[in-house]
Amino acid sequence: VQTALERLMQGRTTIVIAHRLATVLKADRILVMEGGRIVEEGTHQSLVAKGGIYARLAKLQFETGASAFKG
User: Fold this and answer.
1) What pTM was estimated for this model as a whole?
2) Res. 67: pLDDT tops 70
3) What is the 3-state secondary structure (H, E, C) of 1-32?
4) Three-state SS for 31?
5) Domain spans of the chain?
6) Which residue of 25, 32, 61, 69 pairs with 40 in a disulfide if CB–CB is 3.0 to 4.6 A?
7) Widest CA span of the chain, in angstroms?
């Protein structure tokens, strides 16, 4: 699914609403919303470095996903 999305979005302006952060990892710009307001903005790397809401969500999603594969 990720490969298909990447192919469709290439060279286009695309708005993606995602709960799974893996969907937006390669996005040029990520807007984080809370309570109907934009509270953070940046790339995946810059948002993780800020240590805010996005960073906490990324840690939860990616650590949980990784532990699910450890068996």
Assistant:
1) 0.76
2) no
3) CHHHHHHHHCCCCCCCCCCCHHHHCCCCCEEE
4) strand
5) 2-68
6) 32
7) 39
